[in-house]
Structure formats: C-alpha cells, structure tokens
# Entry
Amino acid sequence: MKSSLIISVFIIGTLIVIASCKKPDEVKVGNAKVYTPLQDDLARSMKKASLVMRRLSRAVKNNDWVETDMWTQELKEGIGFSCVTQYMIENNDISLRFIMLSNQFNSAINKLMLASKKHYPERANIEFDNLVYSCDACHDSFNKDAEGNLDFSDSGEE
# Structure
C-alpha cells in the first residue's frame, strides 16, 4: 500500500512537470537589441563612473577612508583606463587638451588616494573638488550632449 502510494505520487508529479513545461514552439523570443560595441561600452562605463563618483562623494564627505580608497580605485580603473581608452579608440584625432585633462584627472585621483591613505579630511575634500573639476572640464570640452556641470552630490539615489 505504501509503495503503491509513493509510485502514484511519483507518476502524478512527473505528469505535472511534463504538462507544465513549455514546448519549443510556444517560447516567444523578443527582438534583440543591436549594440555598437564602442559606443555602448563607453556609455556603460560613464554611467558606472557617475555612480562611483556619487559613492565616492559620500565616502569623502563622511571621512570613510576604506570606502574612499575602494571607490577611488574603482574610478581610476573605470575612467582612467576604461573610459579614456574607449574614447581614444572612438576618436581618431585626440587633442592635446584631452591628454592634458586626462593627466589632470589622474593627478587628482592619485592625490585623493594619498589623502585617503593618510586620513587627511581637508586634503581629501580639496582633491575631490579637483577631481570633479577635471571631470567637468573634460565633459565641457568633449561631451557634446552634456548640459551644464556634472552633479556628483549624494542625493540618496543609486
């Protein structure tokens, strides 16, 4: 009796699983988005960098040295390597101004990292402001879609 009950439960369970599975002809596939790799990579990198800048702003404001160090590293890799490299790949004629602004960004981020390691809140605030200035200057020069200065203040949104 017990074994027949187990067998009947197993058979009913198998039938339910088989009946609930969709057949291949019932599966609907939506339209796939077409991405231009360089433009989308750059856009994604910049969006991520914006999020990291807001998090970095909060960390600097709160003198959270671990977070500041983590987000400066993330930002250096994200903008310093990824975004700048992708922008250079997309644009054949890189101006001297772009190289100077890239160096200004790298200098500001390195000084912010040093201030964070030494736990100097005043210096960290100054270097964060310099970092934001370097971002604004680059976007003013090279981002044709930018409207005004960038706002990296922490508004609680992520």
About this structure: The chain has a mean pLDDT of 76. The CA atoms of residues 5 and 111 lie 73 Å apart. Helices lie at 2-20, 37-61, 65-90, 96-118, 121-142. The first helix runs from residue 2 to 20.
